[in-house]
Design brief:
2 domains, 7 helices, about 15% strand, Rossmann fold, six-stranded parallel sheet
Length: about 190
């Protein structure tokens, strides 16, 4: 039976610095990717929270449509499509399904399922699809999925997820590392 991989989209399949130029342009900032030392963007901008929320909702479809794929993701995901069912589980709202599906098609990515759950709590979806492994960039998601689902979680190392991790959360720096870790894991 094929393995099932749960895979986050934003900051995992897409580049983790995707939002930086959009934030800089919209809010006249000079942020670098390394400046983003927490997951939430609001503390970095200079507008009321409601204004930021409105901007984010209006710009999400554009940003997601234009997102660049993380280096190496396409090759590894193509390799994995032969050995596992790929369940892309994202906090994106379901109203973004069409733009998400078009992005996957344009980038020639295979998937078994795209699940847009509208929240960062991915545990129910991970359990629903009985995933054997999860790939994530959000620290608390990685820890919660690992602990609740009792599965390994590969955490893509970013400036915004540097808190300590438990044993079952494995920090990786690239899709190449992810591919090597999975190959070793599948052979044990």
């Amino acid at each position: 039976m094929k393995k099932r991989f749960g895979i986050d989209i934003d900051g995992t399949v897409t580049r983790p610095d995707t939002f930086v130029p959009y934030l800089n342009k919209a809010f006249q900032l000079n942020l670098t990717y390394e400046d983003i030392n927490q997951y939430e963007f609001y503390p970095f901008v200079n507008v009321p929270k409601e204004d930021f929320r409105k901007w984010f909702i209006e710009n999400e479809p554009i940003i997601y449509a234009e997102s660049q794929m993380a280096e190496g993701a396409k090759d590894i995901l193509h390799q994995w499509a032969d050995i596992a069912d790929l369940y892309f589980i994202s906090a994106r709202d379901y109203k973004l399904f069409e733009v998400t599906q078009k992005w996957f098609t344009a980038n020639e990515l295979n998937y078994h399922q795209i699940e847009l759950i509208g929240s960062h709590d991915k545990i129910a979806a991970a359990k629903k699809y009985s995933v054997d492994l999860f790939l994530e960039d959000k620290h608390d998601n990685a820890v919660a999925i690992c602990e609740e689902c009792q599965i390994p979680v590969l955490l893509f190392n970013t400036p915004y997820n540097q808190d300590p991790v438990p044993e079952g959360v494995i920090r990786i720096n690239s899709w190449t590392e992810a591919g090597l870790w999975v190959k070793k894991w599948l052979n044990t």
